[in-house]
Design brief:
10 strands; 2 domains; five-stranded parallel β-sheet; alpha/beta; 24% strand; Cobalt-precorrin-4 Transmethylase, domain 1; elongated; single chain
């Protein structure tokens, strides 16, 4: 029976793939995802569609169309599909699909673990697609740690904070390329971060 799976693939390393995610991919005809997500399933022998930022809308619509045509399709979502993932755009397209969401481990969770931050009472924020929004400023003074997925460059977000009168000495951490062999964790101040360079795969934590 035709079905659409939204599968969370974790932060990047196969170490953080769930058994449920692996099992689900074995039951589908078509696998859709970014190249780094697809690389987690080298043994998949069905049809593969590469998802990119520039073809996101097209691939979402094509995935739905394939399900309508009788195919079982899985869209791979780095991290968890429900947090800055593919669940929201799919629900905007159609709310009547036979849909199953397989949750994944978010880079936010892994960042909290690396930094030993209990994350049940933090501000969780995504700026993906929003730019350096004022929404982060509203979170910084409520007494909670803020864990944020930046829009693109964490150093640009640090510069934005400085421009909006955030204390240059405020403690901050950046977790870069979490779960990969070259992962890096930086701890310092907002001012220090503003003059550094990082990969776009980052999580920022503001204390």
């Amino acid at each position: 029976m035709a079905k659409l799976y939204l599968i969370g693939t974790g932060p990047g390393s196969s170490d953080y793939l769930t058994v449920a995610a692996v099992k689900a991919t074995k039951s589908v005809d078509v696998l859709v995802g970014s190249q780094r997500a697809l690389d987690l399933f080298p043994d998949f022998r069905g049809e593969v569609l590469v998802l990119q930022a520039k073809n996101m809308d097209e691939m979402m619509k094509k995935s739905v169309s394939l399900v309508d045509g009788g195919k079982t399709v899985a869209i791979l979502s780095t991290g968890d599909p429900g947090f800055s993932g593919v669940l929201k755009p799919i629900l905007k397209l159609r709310d009547d699909l036979d849909l199953e969401v397989v949750p994944g481990i978010s880079s936010l969770q892994l960042a909290a673990a690396k930094l030993q931050v209990p994350w049940d009472e933090v501000n969780l924020l995504t700026l993906h697609g929003k730019g350096n929004s004022d929404v982060i400023l509203d979170c910084l003074d409520n007494g909670k740690v803020t864990i944020v997925l930046p829009d693109f460059r964490v150093e640009k977000l640090a510069q934005f904070l400085l421009e909006n009168d955030v204390d240059p000495k405020r403690k901050i951490a950046v977790c870069e390329r979490l779960s990969y062999p070259d992962e890096r964790v930086f701890t310092g101040t907002v001012k220090e971060l503003a003059s550094m360079e990082f990969n776009y795969l980052c999580v920022m934590v503001v204390y």
